[in-house]
Amino acid sequence: MDPIDYLWKRLTEPLGSEMVLQKINGENVTCYCCDRKSKYWATDSYVNRQDSYLKMDVPVCAPCNALFLGTQRLGIEKGTPEKPAGFGKLGMLAGCGLIVTAKESIILTNPGWHKRISYSDNVLCRLEMVSGKSAFEYTVALIKGLEPADFPVIYISDLGRKKAELVKNLILTTDSKVLISCSANGAARIDLELLDALQTFAVNDKKSWTKFKKFINDASNGRISPSDEKLQEFMASSPESLRLARLLPADPHEKLALMRIV
Question: Is residue 156 within 8 Å of residue 166, measured between CB atoms?
Fold first, then answer.
């Protein structure tokens, strides 16, 4: 199942009752957001949305449209509880995360959004007021405690504001070994066993960890080459650094993501 359809089936489908939906009726429709043809959608319905740049209506499948929908179930985005100028939208909760498992969904909120969403008397799903690095630590602990039946999982580190980019970067986490962190900026695969090893190294040998992190960041950003003499000398003098360096992902962006987390 496509991740945006999984999100629809597990969380956002109830929002369909608030949309002005149109049926496909045999048409060959392509969603303007996810760029999928209608035969691949989880539903036969879509919404005609006004594109602010094209100044024309464009079709958006119901699962994608759930990110655009202003709904009382997400509290208020603008205004006051008494006179809301706009209801909250799932695809506009910048700074908030989302965890969707086969059994439950959780929005990870910062204090500002927690207060605004909590104005709803029928919140879309459970809220946890945890943000930043604490939100990631919360997610890792939750993932490690899940049963096989709880997978697959969607983990969005920041719901942000760029909905189409977010949709295109959604990837399902299929087990508790590798967590895939999604956002509009991309998707990072995080080996949780390797993460544990890096965190242990950082605590047990702070001096070596500081050098290790700098070398890895510099090499990943292209400031030094993997054959740099000082890098090679350091790795030769620190067996644990060499062991962990060999376990790091080849993708420099994923290396940098890991370094930021530890």
Answer: yes
81 in a structural domain: no
pLDDT single digits (tens) 162-174? 999 999 999 999 9
Q: Residues 160, 229: one domain?
A: no
DSSP designation for 10: I
Last residue within a domain, chosen from 134, 155, 189: 189
Half-sphere exposure of 36 (CA within 13 A, CB side): 22
Q: What is the DSSP string of 97-155?
A: EEEE-SS-EEEEE-HHHHHHHTT-SS-SSEEEE--THHHHHHHHHHHHT--GGG-SBEE
The pTM (predicted TM-score) of the whole model is 0.90
Same domain, 7 and 39: yes
Nearest CA to 128 out of 147, 144, 113, 149 is that of: 113
Coil, helix or strand for 160?
Answer: coil
Q: Which of 162, 189, 216 is the last residue of a domain?
A: 189
pLDDT tens track for 76-103 = 998 888 888 899 999 999 999 999 999 9
Interior angle at CA 133, CA 131 and CA 136, nearest 5: 85
Per the structure, the complete domain to which residue 233 belongs is given by 193-261
Q: Which amino acid is at 18?
A: E
Same domain assignment for residues 151 and 214 = no
Chain-wide mean pLDDT for the chain? 94
Q: What's the pLDDT tens digit per position in 99-136?
A: 999 999 999 999 999 999 999 999 999 999 999 889 99
pLDDT of residue 254: 87
Q: Which residues contact 91 (CB under 8 A, 6 or more apart)?
A: 67, 68, 159, 160, 161, 163, 166
